[in-house]
Specification:
FAD/NAD(P)-binding domain; 4-stranded parallel β-sheet; about 30% helix; alpha/beta; about 350 residues; 2 domains; about 25% strand; 18 strands
Length: about 350
C-alpha cells in the first residue's frame, strides 16, 4: 500500500473532495483521509438533509393551500418519522456516490483520523486522537476538516441538541426552543414549525441574521412570527434543566420555557482539535488556520481550505478554494478565489 503521495488531503468534505479529484485529474498521486462518512457537513449533516426537511415542511403548506387552486384532496397523513428515515436514506445514497467519484478519479481513500507528526508526516488513527496505526508522507498536505457547532458553557448544556443531532431524530416533541439568530437557527425554526412543532426562538441580539441586509432580516422575522414562531429578542439562555423530552429553559430575564427539546444553533468554529498543527509549525490565529490568498499556511507546502480558515464558510466557496489550490499547485494554472463578492441565501419559510 502506497505511503508517499504528491498530495495528502485531511478531510473528505466539499473542499477536500474538490481538491483531491482536481489534483488527481492533473496527474498527481492523491490520498484523502477521513474518519467519518464521505461528503462533509453539506452532504451528511448540513445543506442537503436540511433542504430535504425544508421541502418536507413546505409540502404541508402546499397541501393546505390546494383548494385555492381548485384541487380537492382527501385526508393527508403526516409521518414525520418516515420523512426523517427517507432523508437519512438519501444521505446514505450520496455518501456512496461520493465514494464512487473518488474511486473513478483514482484517489486513494484512507479510513481513519489524520494528525501531523511533523510538517511532512501524517499519522493515521482509527479513533480521533487515538494511537497511530499508520504513517504517511506527502509533498503537499491540504487541511480541509471543516468546522463544528459550538454550544455555550451553561448548566444543563448536555441536555441540548446541536444541528448534527436533528437528522437522527425519530420523532419530534410538541414544543422546541431554538437558540440563535443565524441562518441555521432560522431555517430549523421554520422546518420544525412546518412539521407542526410549537417553536420558540431565543435571540441574544435585537434582530435576526446579523450581517444580512437589515430590511430583509426584518422581513424574515415578520414571516417567522406570522407562521406562529415565538421570537424572543434580547434574551439569552442561562440554564437548561430536566430530563430528555421534558426540559425547562431558563432565560436571562427570569422567564422559564417548558419544552421537549432545545436546539443550540449558536455558531460554528474550525475543528482544529487533535490535528497536531503545532507539530507541523502551522500558525493558528483566533481559532482558525491562517492562510494567504493561495490558501497556503505558514508552512509553504501545507495548505488549508474551507471552514478551517474561517474566511467565507459556504460549500461553493470551499469547493472553489479546493479547485483553485489544485489548479495552482498541480495544473500549471495559477488562480485565486475572490472572497469579496459571494452570494448567500437563507432557506426560511416564507423565504
Amino acid at each position: 500500500m502506497e505511503s508517499t503521495f504528491d498530495l495528502l488531503v485531511l478531510g473528505a468534505g466539499s473542499g477536500g473532495l474538490a481538491a483531491a479529484k482536481r489534483a488527481a485529474r492533473h496527474g498527481a498521486r492523491v490520498a484523502i483521509v477521513e474518519g467519518d462518512r464521505v461528503g462533509g457537513t453539506c452532504v451528511i449533516r448540513g445543506c442537503v438533509p436540511k433542504k430535504l426537511l425544508v421541502y418536507g415542511a413546505q409540502a404541508r403548506h402546499q397541501l393546505r393551500d390546494a383548494p385555492a387552486y381548485g384541487l380537492t384532496l382527501g385526508a393527508v397523513e403526516s409521518d414525520v418519522a418516515e420523512l426523517f428515515r427517507r432523508v437519512r436514506a438519501e444521505v446514505d445514497r450520496l455518501n456512496q456516490l461520493h465514494l464512487s467519484f473518488l474511486d473513478k478519479a483514482g484517489v486513494e481513500r484512507i479510513d481513519g483520523w489524520g494528525r501531523f507528526l511533523s510538517d511532512r508526516s501524517i499519522g493515521i488513527a482509527t479513533d480521533r486522537g487515538g494511537p497511530i496505526q499508520r504513517e504517511l508522507s506527502a509533498a503537499h498536505v491540504l487541511v480541509a476538516v471543516g468546522g463544528r457547532p459550538v454550544r455555550p458553557d451553561i448548566p444543563g448544556i448536555e441536555h441540548t441538541w446541536i444541528s448534527d443531532d436533528m437528522f437522527n431524530l425519530e420523532q419530534l416533541p410538541q414544543a422546541v426552543v431554538v437558540v440563535g439568530a443565524g441562518f441555521i437557527a432560522c431555517e430549523f425554526a421554520c422546518i420544525l414549525r412546518g412539521l407542526g412543532v410549537e417553536v420558540t426562538q431565543v435571540v441574544r441580539g435585537s434582530g435576526l441574521l446579523r450581517g444580512f441586509d437589515r430590511e430583509l432580516a426584518d422581513a424574515v422575522l415578520e414571516g417567522l412570527q406570522e407562521q406562529g414562531i415565538h421570537v424572543l429578542l434580547e434574551r439569552s439562555v442561562t440554564a437548561v434543566s430536566g430530563q430528555p423530552a421534558d426540559l425547562t429553559v431558563q432565560l436571562s430575564d427570569g422567564l422559564e420555557l417548558p419544552c421537549g427539546g432545545v436546539l443550540m444553533a449558536t455558531g460554528r468554529r474550525p475543528w482544529l482539535e487533535g490535528l497536531g498543527l503545532d507539530a507541523a509549525g502551522v500558525v493558528v490565529e483566533n481559532g482558525r488556520i491562517r492562510v494567504d490568498a493561495d490558501s497556503r499556511t505558514s508552512v509553504p507546502h501545507i495548505y488549508a481550505v474551507g471552514d478551517v480558515t474561517d474566511r467565507v464558510n459556504l460549500t461553493p466557496v470551499a469547493i472553489d478554494e479546493g479547485r483553485a489550490f489544485a489548479d495552482t499547485s498541480f495544473g500549471g494554472r495559477p488562480r485565486q478565489v475572490n472572497h469579496d463578492l459571494v452570494a448567500s441565501a437563507v432557506f426560511s419559510d416564507p423565504a
